[in-house]
Amino acid sequence: MNLLQVYDPPMCCSTGVCGTQVDLELVSFAVMLAQLRGHGIAVERYNLGQQPLAFVNNPAVKALLEKSGTDALPVIFQDGVVLLQGRYPTSAERKDWLCAAQAQATGTVS
After folding, report:
1. How many other CB atoms sit within 10 Å of the CB of residue 60?
2. Per-residue buried b or exposed e for 68-85, using 16+ beta carbons within 10 Å of the residue's own CB
3. Of 7, 53, 89, 100, which has the most beta carbons under 10 Å away?
4. Angstrom distance (rounded) from CA 73 to CA 35
5. How far apart are CA 39 and CA 17, in angstroms?
6. Phi first, then psi: what are they for 65, rounded to 5°?
7. Which residues of the chain have pLDDT under 50?
8. DSSP for the chain?
9. Cβ–Cβ < 8 Å for 53, 61
10. Judging by DSSP bridges, how do beta strands 3-8 and 81-85 pair with one another?
């Protein structure tokens, strides 16, 4: 994993701590993204409400939106390939991603 791109649905912030209710799923996801960056993984994150051109300029995301609307979001790409669509990773998936990134950073994975 060298690049993780996240295309979020429209929301006021990506951390999950804005508004009246904290979204713990988004908080955990934001923490994981920060940890991935710490392991040398490039992370790009786009919010439909704030960066609509990023969605239009990515042909795969644009096609998903045309087919399924915003139900397709979030879309998460790993090195240009759709990794997840329509949901954020589970806690087990987040753990796997972090383990893989750590192994890559320490050179224990080819």
Report:
1. 14
2. eeeebbbbbbbeeeebeb
3. 7
4. 22
5. 24
6. -65, -40
7. none
8. --EEEEEEPS-S-SSS-SSSS--HHHHHHHHHHHHHHHTT-EEEEEETTT-HHHHHSSHHHHHHHHHHGGGG-SEEEETTEEEEESSPPPHHHHHHHHHHHHHHHHT---
9. no
10. unpaired
